[in-house]
C-alpha cells in the first residue's frame, strides 16, 4: 500500500491563507486598512453582521431573534441590528443602557442571565423590560421584590457535549426542579411564561438540540398538567462559526431544529426565541496585530504580538483557536504565540505554522468578531484592541 504523507503545517497554513483571501476578497473596503491601520485593531464588517442576522431570520422565520449583546456590544453593531428590527438579550444595566439609547422598544429586550444584580432587575423593570430567566427559588424571590408581575422563564440544563465553550455546569436545573420553580414563581405573584436552555456556545453537535427540545417538551406538558400554560420557548444561542475548521451553518441548525419542533411541539409555542451572539458577529471580525518579538526557548519558537489573552483574546484560554495568517511565503515553522503582557499565562496558541516572521510584521487573526474586545482589560497597562466597524 502506498504511504500517504500528511504535512500538518501546510494544511493549517493553507487553510488560514484561503480563509483570509476569501474574507478579504469579499470585503474590498478592508484592503487598504489591513496594512495601514494602527495595531492592534479589530475590524468588523457591519454588512456581514446584518447579512448574518437576515440569514437567521430567513431560515427561522417563526423565531424571534434576540442578539446576545455580550458577544460584542459595540454601539455600531447594536445600531445596525436595531435598524433591522432585531431584539436584544442583555445581562447588565450597562448593556441595557446601550440598547435603550438606540430607542429600542422594551418589549424587544429580554434578560436570560439566570442570576442578575438586584439593581439591574429594578432598572430593567422601570424602563419596561419585563421578561427574565430564572433557575433558582432565590432568583424568583429577588425578582418578586422589585419587579412584581414580571414574566419569568426557567432555564433547564441540557447536554453541552461538542460545544467549544460549555455552559451546562454553571446554570440550569433538571425538569422536576424547573417545574417547582415555575409553580413557586406563580405563587409569588410573577407570571411564568416559558422555559429556556443553552446547548453551549460554538455548538457543532446537533444531538444537544435534540435532547434540549425533547426535554423542553416534557416540561411543557408537565407544566400544563399543573395548570401552568407556558407560551415561550427560548432556545438560547449556540450557533457556531468557522474557526480552525468548518462548522454547522445557520441553515443546518435551523433545518434540524424545525424538524424537532414539529415532532415534539405539534402545537407550536405562542412565541419561539433564539439568542445568537457568536453566530451573528463571530466570523465578521478580523484582528490585525503586529509582531513585537521572537525567541527560541528550549525547542520551541516563540512569537510575541501586541495583544493577548487579557486584552482581547481570552477565549484562547478555553481552547478557541483563531486561524492565523502572515502574508509571506517560505518554509513553515511551528510557533508558540505569546501575548503582550508579562504574565506567563498570556499564551494565545501553540502549534501555529507560519513562515518566518520579523519584528513589525502583521498577523491576521480571523473569526475574532465575538468574545474578544468585550473581554479585554487594561492589564499590565495594555488596552484592548481598538474597534473599527465598516
Number of strands: 18
Question: Which CATH architecture of the largest domain would you pick?
Answer: Alpha-Beta Barrel
User: What portion of the residues fall into strands of 2 or more residues?
Assistant: 15-25%
Uncertain regions spanning at least 5 consecutive residues:
none
Structural class: alpha/beta
- The CATH topology of the largest domain turns out to be TIM Barrel
In the residues, how many domains can be counted? 2
Order of helices and strands: HHEHEHEHEHEHEEHEEHEHEHEEEEEEE
| Largest sheet data | 8 strands, mixed
- The CATH homology group name of the largest domain: Alanine racemase
> Helicity level, as a percent range?
25-40%
- Mean pLDDT equals 95
Query: Which word captures the global form?
Result: elongated
Tally the helices.
11
Q: For the terminal residues, how far apart are their CA atoms? A: 53 Å
**What CATH first level of the largest domain would be assigned?**
Alpha Beta
Radius of gyration: 22 Å
Active site: 342 (proton donor)
Modified residues (N6-(pyridoxal phosphate)lysine): 70
Catalytic activity: L-ornithine + H(+) = putrescine + CO2
EC number: 4.1.1.17
